[in-house]
Amino acid sequence: MMIKTILLVEDNPNDVELTMEALAENNIANAVDLASDGEEALDYLYCKGKFSSRSPVNPGVILLDLKLPKVNGLEVLGKIRSDDRLKLIPVVILTSSREEKDLVEGYRLGVNAYVVKPVDFNEFVKAIRTLGLFWAIINEPPPDRG
Fold first, then answer.
1. Tell me, what CATH number does 54's domain have?
2. Residue 94, exposed/middle/buried by CB under 10 A (0-12, 13-18, 19+)?
3. In the prediction, which pLDDT does 104 show?
4. pLDDT at residue 27 above 90?
5. Are 116 and 110 in contact (CB under 8 A)?
6. Residue 145 lies in a domain
7. What local confidence, expressed as pLDDT, does residue 3 receive?
8. How far apart are CA 59 and CA 31, in angstroms?
């Protein structure tokens, strides 16, 4: 079984560090690629710009923040879900937003899960453990039809 890459789309360096720490603490060994804004996430998925030389294999899961510069998370999710080559990738919104409109819009656009980032590190580690075990290890992703 090939270990799938996790695409982390997050603009806050502290949240990137926390997520990486939480994955490491939970022994989730998947490679993690980072996009620091919505435009970079789309470049990654379409192998453009600085990601033009990456293998065109889709990530196993995308951890997507909502409040992103350039292109926001909901716009990224909308583009993913409207593209036949990308629409089956599991997407988990990982955000500090508790706004009901974001939650509703995320599910309307087809997100697989919506996780509000806890402020407490131990709670965050538990959330990442659960997410990682499911999306990175247990879940069987759809075949890559690239």
1. 3.40.50.2300
2. buried
3. 94
4. no
5. no
6. no
7. 66
8. 10
User: Which residues fall within 8 angstroms of residue 51, CB to CB, at 6 or more apart?
Assistant: 40, 43, 44
What's the rounded mean pLDDT across residues 65-79?
Answer: 96
Compute the mean pLDDT over every residue in the chain, rounded to the nearest whole number. 85
What's the length of the chain?
146
| Tally of domains within the chain | 1
Name the token pair of 63.
């951890």
CB atoms within 10 A of CB 27: 10
Return phi, psi of residue 68, to 5°. -120, 150
CB 68 within 8 A of CB 97: no
**Residue 136, pLDDT above cutoff 60:** no
